[in-house]
Structure formats: structure tokens, C-alpha cells
Amino acid sequence: MSILKVLSVFVIALWLAACGHATKNGVEPTQEGLATKTLSAEEAEVEQQVARISEKLKDEPTVKGWLLVGDGNMYLKRYDEAVSAYREAYILSDYADEPKRKLKRAMFLATIALSK
């Protein structure tokens, strides 16, 4: 199973667990409360997956792997780390368009984040 599918399954499972936990305790979940719990659970899961994939990439670097790490860091708003990951993907891909486009976007957002 691909890493993307595994990540999707984990996120859905966490969301379902959060929904079940809220109603099981007799508290009706509100949209606001549920979104906050799910978001932090999603962020934790994405952070865990990024760390796991990064470890694998030390032994077997791949373009797809570095793109996933970059995408995860973009989701977590860690733009500098995303720039590093996309740079690795760009170099490994022999300067393909997709990593280049993602690298440019991450660099732009990192620059904006620095100016705030």
C-alpha cells in the first residue's frame, strides 16, 4: 500500500475515533469543538508520518518521498522545512516541473512568514 493511502486511512480513522469518543461520553460534539480536536489529531498524525518518511529517505531517497515530506511540512506551515524537502525532490528529479513549482511556492510562503 502506498504511503499516501496509509496516511489517508490514518487521518480518517483518527477523525472517526474523535467523533465516537465525543458521543460516547454523553457530550454532543459541536462543529467547533470537533474541528479543533480533529485538526490537532490530524496535525499530530501528519507530523508523525513526516518524521517516519524522513527517516526512510535517509537510506533510500526518492522524489515521491521528498514531495510527501514537503507536502506534509506545507500542511503544518513549516515552510523552511518544506523548502528543504522540495529542493531535494527537485534535484533528484533532474529538475522536473512539479518539484520546481512546489519549491517556488514554499519559498514564497517562507519569505512571507519571515516578513511577519
TrEMBL record:
The keyword Signal applies. It comes from the Bacteria. Residues 1-22 form the signal peptide. Keywords: Signal. This is Tetratricopeptide repeat-containing protein.
